[in-house]
Structures are given as C-alpha cells and as structure tokens.
C-alpha cells in the first residue's frame, strides 16, 4: 500500500511541476516582439467613470497648458496646478494656480516664473456631476 501511495504522490508532483513549467516554456520561446505586444495588452490602465482624457504641456519657459475631456454627465471641472521645485528631499510646492470651467470639456493655460533648478507641475483634475465627483493627479517635468 505504501508503494502505491508513493507512486501516486510522485505522479501528482510531476503533474503539478509540469503544469507550472508549461507556461514558462512558452514565454522562453517567445521573441522580444511577442513579449512587447503581450506587455502592452496587459498594461494596467485606470478606469474612470467620468474622465475620458487629459493632457499636459509644460515648457522650460514656465508656460503650461492642461486640458480635460469628460462624459456628458460632468457639469464642471476644476484644475489645480502646483509648481514644484526639486530639492534635497524631493519636490516641494512653490506656487499654486487654479481655474474652474463649466461643462464636460475644459482647458487652462498660464505660466510660472521659473528660477534655476529642476521643476515639475502637479496637476489635479477634478470633475463634478450633479451627484458625484472624480479626480486624477498627473505630473509633468519641464
């Protein structure tokens, strides 16, 4: 009886090992082009209920342009743009500008006075419906 159970255990272990190695064998045989297409298909993208698209342009001169398009349910949009300067312990906010827009599409353009150093902007997009809201934060270096 012990020999039978040892054989059954060995068979079960070999089946389990084969099942775990089988997908890896397919990946090992894949070309780099195959892997890049698989990676782009499995990339995690956040899903938003109302926000459809955002964009940021931030130039070394300090000029920025941000915009957002949202679903028709959105009644207003709030942009908050923070100028952040890189320091010894990371980025810190130097100045903040904001603007509100009515409707489901909005854009905001302005500029910051940049001194020497490394800067980025932190843009908080907020959209508001009659009963809900949604926000997203994005960064862009000059």
Structure, described:
The protein has 142 residues and is of the alpha+beta class. The chain has 2 domains: 40 residues; 91 residues, Immunoglobulins (Immunoglobulin-like). It starts with a helix and ends with a strand. The relative contact order is 0.18.
Summarize this structure as a short list of keywords or feature phrases.
single chain; 142 residues; alpha+beta; Immunoglobulin-like; 2 domains; 4-stranded antiparallel sheet; 3-stranded antiparallel sheet; flat
User: In whole angstroms, how far apart are the ends?
Assistant: 74 Å
Rounded to an integer in angstroms, the radius of gyration calculated over CA atoms is 26 Å
On the 0 to 100 scale, the average pLDDT is 83
Largest sheet: 4 strands, antiparallel
Strand order of the largest sheet: 4-3-6-7
Count of helix runs = 2
Strand content: over 45%
Overall 3D geometry?
flat
CATH topology of the largest domain: Immunoglobulin-like
The named CATH superfamily of the largest domain: Immunoglobulins
Topology order in helix (H) and strand (E) letters = HHEEEEEEE
Q: What would CATH call the class of the largest domain?
A: Mainly Beta
Number of strands: 7
Low-confidence stretches: none
* Total individual domains: 2
What class would the helix/strand composition place it in?
alpha+beta
Helix fraction bin: 25-40%
CATH architecture of the largest domain: Sandwich
